[in-house]
Structures are given as structure tokens and as C-alpha cells.
Amino acid sequence: MPQTILLLDDEPDNTTLMEQTLHRKLDGVATVSFNSPRAALSWCTDNEPDLCLIDYRMPEMSGIEFMVRARQNPRFQGIPMVMITGMDPEDVRPAALVSGATEFLSKPINPAEMASRCRNLLVLRQSLREQRDQVQRLGGEVSEAVHGIALRGQEVIINRLVRFSRARDEETGGHMHRMAFLSELIAREIGENREYCDMLLLAAPMHDIGKVGIPDRILLKPGRLDSADWEIMKTHTTIGYDVLKESDSSLLNLGAEIARSHHEKFNGFGYPRGLSGESIPLAGRIVAVADVFDALVNERPYKQAWQPGDAFDFLRRERAKHFDPQCVDALLKRIPEVMDIEHEFSDARTGKVGVVTQLSRRGASGG
Ligand SMILES: [Fe+2]
Ligand SMILES: [Fe+2]
After folding, report:
1. Which ligand is nearest to the CA of 291?
2. How far is the CA of 15 from the centre of ligand 2 (A)?
3. What is the model's pLDDT at position 222?
């Protein structure tokens, strides 16, 4: 069977040029080209390429967002992905690596370099595939473990951290995806640049990571918390900040800022520092809207799901009180996309994977 390379670039001339180069220089390789990331993603639901070449800068969604979405499909975790960028790779490298880029190619593309990189990655892919098939034959737990090691080309630290924190909390994986994509949507609507939006998409799920430091007797307590316990619960913000702060990673630093500021309120009545207005970091103001909105419209162990209209009204009422007005307006301007995100990552579709979901009958509002 020929190996298939997926080519994604919003410029048709670029995909044509790549196709021609690959067919000329690599024997027996099939290509499938897309100029729209959404079209490529829908093809990916039923097909499995052996290698993806992805443009970084595209109008519909960035190459990073494409990779994050594609890699949600477990079958895509072992597929090499090359990010093509006209920028200095150092500027996009941190976010690209976390989202799963295997390699980088610079624009303008050097055909010989592209062909030899692709050849190497296809050999790697082939051997991973054979390894995977062999491992699957072994069956059972051993297979799972080896499979995981073989296919995971790199450590996706953020995912691990989030999964680790979620293991003790009632949050579903769906909530983390939804609130991250909603945060990214708000950031885009208020005019933040692509790099910032990508970083926010990856950092937002770390907002509640500090809950790993909250004792079980409080985190899992059914019913309302008394004021002493509530004071302890509130420290998940500063614990998260302490865990993530002061690293060399700009992503972890953004995660730290979000962890500390996502419960601040625009009017100054939030915690932990009681900051108000624009003294609250922008990422915290954005995540606050996304996190609370998603918590409202979804069922939690302690509450029914609200109707979207009621949740939008709540945001309107809390505009300039709990929430930054520009973030509320941004979300309200993009209601169809908001509902798409809610649908795409609904708990019914993604499964309620929170380990403690069944144990916990209570959660702090807004997560
Ligand atoms: Fe929180
Ligand atoms: Fe949350």
C-alpha cells in the first residue's frame, strides 16, 4: 500500500508545488492536498495519512490549532507532522512542539530538503506502524504500555499535567477542550495575535491545576463548603501559580498567570488578590468568561445544565461586574461558533472521563 502524505496550505500554488516535488522525488507516495484546515480535519475523521505537512499561518485556523484538533484522535498520535513556517522557527517552536509538531521546514521550501525530511519521516512512520502491529499482537496490558512508548514521539507535558490534575477533580476532558477553544475564540475576536491565541489554547486547560494541592476531604466533600474549607479551596489558584511559575517555558508561565487570575472579578470582588479591571492579566479575564460559561451550560454533579440563552443573559448581567465587558462582548458576537464548540466537544461525544466524577457530588462554581 502506498504511503499517503497530507498537504495543508491555504495557498493552492504551494500545495501544487509540494505535490509535484514529492511525486518527482519519492517513489510510490500518494498525496492528498487541502487548502482549508476544516476540510482537512473532516477528511481525517475517516482517513489516516502517514505524514502531514502543515502550513503555520492560515486564515481559518493556525497550523497549531489544526495539529491540536487532529491529535485529539488517538490514531493521529503516532503520525509525524511537519510545520511549515515563514517565520523564524524559534518563535513558534515552543507552542508547536507542545501541540505535537515533529519537525519544522522553513519557507521558501527547499525541494531537496523537503523530500529528504519526508523520506526519513515515512521510514520512521513505517517502523512505528510495524512496531504497533507487532505490539497489538502481544495483546493485554504489556501491549498498551509499549504501544504508548513507541507511538509517543515526544512528551506532551501539558497534557500530562492537565490529565494528572483532572484525575482528582470532577472535571471532564470535554470541559477542558471546550473552555480552551472558547478562550481562544474570545482572544481572536478581541484582536489578539495568532501566537497569543495558540498559546492560550494550550495554556487554558491548566487553570485548575492547583486543585492537586487541595485535600480530598475538601475537594470531594458533598454539599456546601463551610467558610474555613472554602478559604482552603480558594488556594487552588495560588497553588497552581506556584507549581507552574518561573520556568523557561512561556507556555507554563502563561498557565501560571491563568491559574492565579481565573477567579479574579472585573469589579475587584474575586480572589486570590482582589484585582480589578485591567490589572487582572488579560488571559485570566478571558478564561474567566470561557470557564464559567462552559460550566453553566453543562451538567455538573451538583447542577443541571442551563439553557444557552440563560447563560448568555447571565454573562450580560455580569458584564463589568464579574467579567471584563470586552471579553463578554467578544463571546456574544460569536454565538454560532460558541455553540459549535459546545457541540463538538460535548460530554456525550467525548465521554465523561473525569475519574472522580462518580465520587464527587459537589464542585466549586466555575471550576
Ligand atoms: Fe478554578
Ligand atoms: Fe474549569
Report:
1. 2
2. 39
3. 78
